[in-house]
Amino acid sequence: MLFRYLFSTPYITKTCTLNKLNRTLSTLPQLSSEKYGVKRKEFGVLKNDDVKFFQSLISKERVLTDESELLPYNIDWIKNCRGQSKVVLKPKTTEEVSQILKYCNERRLAVCPQGGNTGLVGGSVPVFDEVIINFMLMNKIISVDELSGALVCEAGCILENLDNYARERNLIMPLDLGAKGSCQIGGNISTNAGGIRLLRYGNLQGTVLGVEAVKADGSIIDCLRTLKKDNTGYHLKHLFIGSEGTLGVVTKVAIQCPSLPKSVNLGFFGVESFDSVLQLYKSAKSSLGEILSAFEMADSLSIGTTVKNLKLTNPIGEYPFYVLIETHGSDEEHDSDKLSRFLSREMDSGLIVDGTVTAEETKMKSIWNIRESIAGAALHGGYMFKYDVSVPLRSYYELVHVLRRRLRAVDCKVYGYGHVGDGNIHINVVVPEYSKEVYGLLEPFIFEEVSKHKGSISAEHGVGFRKPQYIHYSKDQTSLQLMRDMKRVMDPNGILNPYKVLPDPS
Ligand SMILES: Cc1cc2nc3c(=O)[nH]c(=O)nc-3n(C[C@H](O)[C@H](O)[C@H](O)COP(=O)(O)OP(=O)(O)OC[C@H]3O[C@@H](n4cnc5c(N)ncnc54)[C@H](O)[C@@H]3O)c2cc1C
Questions:
Q1: Residues 273, 238: one domain?
Q2: CA distance 13 to 174
Q3: Residue 318 domain-assigned?
Q4: 0.90 cut: is pTM over it?
Q5: 250: containing domain
Q6: Which residue, 131, 241, 300, 467, shows the most beta carbons closer than 10 Å to its own?
Q7: pLDDT tens digit string along 218-241?
Q8: Distance 261 CA to ligand 1 centre (A)
Q9: In a domain, 87, yes or no
């Protein structure tokens, strides 16, 4: 067995990789309304006077109407959806957001809130001519309490910038994901983003301390507290965590930042079977305990395609499955001691066949870059049907086998990888170009399979535009009705992100 503690791989930044991928996909996606046969609802139609009003409210420079300028705001990251918005607004303050929504509500103009536009379910782009409210200019960090770890900022702050800011103060952001160089904290909250360290730091429903949001009618809800405990009535902030811009627009956020770990290790291991992945996870939980911060897996196709398409280096050989194990702790000696004992036991047991472990930052970044580039690298192959489901761990990888069997006769690749610690697998089916036949083979089949395992059809990406018609596989009718009732109370005219999350009652 060859076991390396050091290796050299060129470090490629995430931003650089994302940009490169976006450039390679130059053809325009079909309009979402045509592709998915959606009918426009009876909203107002944008007029010159509306544009003039917006220009007088927030200035001409922050109102985009030029068709070519609008294009990137109308297309989602994965190039599955394309909207037809005629205007993008870039407010700088909560007050401006409030005035915009008040006006849109009175005029019945539909609105699509947009953060970094890295969402993977078509929620961040309009379907028809919704007014896009983009938060990129609401990017101020308001305060950080180094004692409690509470950070308060505007919704348009980019996650990576917040993390860098927190690190300078011996704190970190409690969430981390492959899109961190572009996604915004307001988008993260609106999607209830998970990411690679949910296993350790929990989900946003736990770490978000407070939210300031604007309702559809323009009224501002101030729940921007920095308290860990506050049981004064209903927990209103939770209405905005994961509601994908359909109940209100998030303008400010207070979030609990954990301490910067003093000792970080990352291992990348080759494993022979998925059963070994599961056994390794069980062992890592009990052996590494409180220092385990991430446990990720990817199959050989995912890693092989990523290193090939992006010209990266796989630091170990080729294996059926790969596992990334990360530790965050406060005592280097204690952590490496624990890790060494775990590794030598699992190398002896044969669960780990090969691997590399590093505590060097650039090397850790190189390993994470391979894992986090899987989705982008697979896009080189053509069109991607992307699924993000959670199922009981025993059935975690089964769906990949089922889909490969079902799509035997189709020219496609089925990739499986994800956050094992959260029971969340990402399945990407890549075909040379969009095909209605493949779409028909995949949906609703995949959601029926997930439902058989009592899983969730969306573990962390949300429902967005792509999945409302399948939400009943994860939510019963009574729950759906309650969601509809809440929508009616919060947004009686239905202007906030229409065609998303809630299925059409008909
Ligand atoms: C390479 C890559 C890796 C990813 N990895 C992960 C991962 O590990 N875990 C994960 O959970 N997701 C992941 N994602 C998906 C995506 O990054 C997350 O969903 C992220 O939280 C979206 O943030 P955003 O700012 O880009 O929001 P957008 O994509 O702009 O919007 C997402 C949704 O939130 C709404 N929204 C945005 N801002 C606001 C606001 N201020 N107020 C109200 N509604 C708003 C939009 O209307 C839309 O419905 C990944 C995406 C990519 C491209």
A1: no
A2: 21
A3: yes
A4: yes
A5: 141-256
A6: 131
A7: 999 999 999 999 999 999 999 999
A8: 26
A9: yes
